[in-house]
Every structure is written in C-alpha cells, then in structure tokens.
Amino acid sequence: MSPNLLEVQGLKTYFPIKTGLLQRESGSVKAVDDLSFFVKKGETFGLVGESGCGKSTTGRSLLRLIEPTNGKVMFDGQDITSMSEKELRRIRKDMQIVFQDPFASLNPRHTVRKILEEPFIVHGIGSKEDRLDRVLKLMEHVGLNPSQLNRYPHQFSGGQRQRIVIARALALNPKLIVADEPVSALDVSIQSQILNLLKQLQRQFQLTFIFIAHDLSVVKHFCDRVAVMYLGRIVELAEKRELYSNPKHPYTQALLSAVPVPDPFVKSERIILEGDVPNPAKAPQGCAFHTRCPSASERCRTERPGLLQLSEQHQVACHLYS
Ligand SMILES: Nc1ncnc2c1ncn2[C@@H]1O[C@H](COP(=O)(O)OP(=O)(O)OP(=O)(O)O)[C@@H](O)[C@H]1O
Q1: pLDDT single digits (tens) 13-65
Q2: CA pair distance 44, 297, nearest whole angstrom
Q3: How many angstroms separate the alpha carbon of residue 317 from the centre of ligand 1?
Q4: How far is the CA of 280 from the centre of ligand 1 (A)?
Q5: Pick from 94, 211, 252, 269: CA 20 to 30 A from residue 85's CA?
Q6: 48 lies in some domain
Q7: What distance in Å separates the CA atoms of residue 37 and residue 98, rounded to the nearest whole number?
C-alpha cells in the first residue's frame, strides 16, 4: 500500500483572460503552472508563498472545486481528475476544506445545529436523534459548549466560528483537510489555540492536512514538509527543519529573512526583494523569479529551471544548483 494519500503530477490551472465588449479570450493567468508533489498519509504539508502565487487555486484544484486545466491528482489510489460528478460526490466526503474567513463560510441564518447537521442530511446519514447526537459530539471535539447548539454564527467570536467550520469539516470523517489560511483572519492570541486544536484533531482522527499560509512563521511549528510557491510554481520543497536551516532558493531565503526571530541576541539580516511579483498573465520567460533575484544569470532569464532533487528531503528549482 502506498504511504501517500495524495499524488499530484503536472497540475495546471489556467484562467482565461477575457477582454473587450465581446469578451474575447486574449490569454490566460497561469495560476497553477505544472505542480508535482505528494502528500504522505498523516502528515501536514505546507504550501507557502506571497499573495497571488496560486496557493488557494492549488488547494481548490486538488479537490476539483475548480477544474484543473491539465494534470493528474491521485487521492488514496484513485484518479480524481478523471472522475464523473457522481463519483466525485462520493469521494468528496473524504476531502474537506477550511477557508480563511469563518464568517463568510457559515450561513448567518442557520444555527450551529443546522450547520453541523447538514453534511449528515446531504449524505443521508442517521435518524434525527442520531444526527443530534453526532452534532453534539462534534461540538465537543472542537471545544464548543453543547449549550450553544441553537445559536447563530454572529453570536460567536472569530475563533469559535472557526471551530464551527472545523467541526463541519470533520463531520463526515474525512481523510484529508485542506486548511486555506485557517488562522489568518484571527487574533494572534487565538491563532495558536486553533492551530493546537487542529494538531490535536489530526492525532485523534489520523487526518492528513494541506496547510496553506502566506508566511513561513505560521507553518514553522505546524507542518512536516513545506513547498514554497512563486507565480504558480513550486520553487523549493523540503522537510521543514531542512527548509528552515538550509534554504536554497533565493526566494525562500528572502521569505525566511522576514520571519521575526524571538531572540534579541540573534541578529538577522532581512533580504528586501526588489520589484513586484510579475503579472501572472505575462509571466517572464525563464525562471519566474529572475526579475527580482539578486543572483540571476543570463540562463535564468531564458531557461525555466525544473525541480532538482538535492537530497531525499530537498528539492529546488533554481539554476544556481544545476
Ligand atoms: N477565478 C479566477 N479568474 C481569474 N483569475 C483568477 C481566479 N482566481 C484566481 N485568479 C488569479 O490566479 C492567481 C492566483 O490566485 P490565488 O488566489 O490562487 O493566489 P493565493 O496565493 O492563494 O493568494 P491569496 O493568498 O491572496 O489568496 C492570481 O493572479 C489571481 O488573480
């Protein structure tokens, strides 16, 4: 049996750009541009990069909430990309997503009971009493008071609302949860509580996580392996400790230099990236990062680097190492 829950090969998701009165297609945004990686059963795989680099589109494409343009996604040995809608509905209960903004993902007119009961109703699971029982258990698992069963989302704090979203994601006993910036909208003091809850649930229910974040400080304690994305591509992928202690790609080095160091005796030099992220509709030839890279050579301008295996736990897409 494969140790991997997810295997992704050559995933591409392009969005057409339509212009003019007739909305003619005039190109495409390469939001996800040829990603290949795997996620092991029970691990937390981090996807990190600046806003707009394609993290959310990747997460949604993996679950086919957005249709990928190309590539193959194998989930638990099954090819999701070739599944019919019906087959997909069956397998979707094994793959859930938690979004950044808990308020936007909850129906304001539904009580917690109704919100948490819905997945069971949709999948025809249990009698009314049995469903209530399941809802109460879910509330308990995520640290919500069962007496709040009949409250509405606006009667909860941001952190509690995210607990409701997590409970709903857990309802159908999934194997994989894509957590798309699940703590970014929360107070810093609440962030670690939610991260701890996710970790505890992971152990309790043998969950596999894909954890999306825009900076490397949040994933530091949470992920096992981390992929750094830039303009729709993975530029570096490594086991967490290896990535933090031995970053190879100039972009990862710049991202890491922006992570605050809590020790006043440790001096860290911040690498300031010049220029803006190139427009994904007109991504440059060669390495997408070359316009901002302090070490770019002529080759970086013309030739796109592939992901190079530096060691068993470390891959980098950069001409400095090839
Ligand atoms: N439905 C869409 N139609 C057209 N372009 C899109 C669509 N969704 C995303 N994009 C574009 O695809 C690129 C990647 O967006 P995506 O939201 O995946 O990035 P992200 O890294 O998750 O950013 P953020 O952290 O801000 O959410 C961006 O340039 C975005 O504008």
Answers
A1: 999 888 777 777 778 899 999 999 999 999 999 999 988 899 999 999 999 99
A2: 35
A3: 22
A4: 9
A5: 211
A6: yes
A7: 21
ipTM of the complex: 0.96
CATH number at residue 309: 3.40.50.300
Residue 298 lies in a domain: yes
Which residue has its alpha carbon closest to ligand 1 atom 30? 52
Alpha-carbon distance of 217 to 230, in angstroms, equals: 17
Domain count along the chain: 1
A 10 A CB-CB count for 179 gives 27
Strand partners, 47: 212, 227
Q: Which of 12, 29, 30, 214 to mutate to test ligand 1, by most ligand atoms within 8 A of the CB atom?
A: 29
Q: Which two tokens stand for residue 186?
A: 């929360």
Give dist(CA 76, CA 37) in Å, integer.
14
Ligand 1-lining residues (CB < 6 angstroms): 15, 29, 31, 49, 51-57, 214, 280
57 C-alpha vs ligand 1 centroid, how far in Å?
Answer: 6
Is 239 among the domain residues? yes
Read off the DSSP letter of residue 67. -
> Quick one: residue 250, left, alpha or beta (phi over 0 = left, psi -120 to 50 = alpha)?
alpha
Say what the pTM is. Answer: 0.92
What is the β-pairing status of strands 70-75 and 4-19?
A: antiparallel
Q: Which residue's alpha carbon is nearest to atom 18 within ligand 1?
A: 54
Cβ–Cβ under 8 Å, residues 209 and 44: yes
Question: Whose C-alpha lies nearest to ligand 1, atom 16?
Answer: 54
Which residue range is the domain that position 183 belongs to?
4-94+172-321
**Joined tokens for residue 190:** 């609440």
Determine, yes or no, domain membership for 227: yes
Ligand 1 mutation pick, 18, 55, 230, max ligand atoms within 8 A of CB: 55
Show the tokens assigned to 219: 């994933």
**Structure confidence by residue, pLDDT tens digits, 174-205:** 999 999 999 988 888 899 999 999 999 999 99
